[in-house]
Amino acid sequence: MAIQRKSKTTLAAQAAAVNAFVAGAPDAAHTVSTTSSYDKGVPKGNKRQISLTIAPDLLRRVDDVAKRTGQGRAGIISMAIYRALEGDIFK
Is the full-model pTM beyond 0.70? Predict the structure, then answer.
């Protein structure tokens, strides 16, 4: 039995599906041209690393949600900030 290679069209279709999935992320839809030239924080891929000081009780609650949902702490904080800014909290 010979080993067969996957066709390039299959790989291209998979790459297109991956790119479509990533483009569907909440933070992908709101890219602004000023974001790429924003120089605060340390560049980490298409994001910026920052330092954050947070109350211990609030951090404990964030960690509880992260553990319960299987998400990372940074993901929980990012989603909370995103929802706060997109919602009517600061309007």
Answer: no
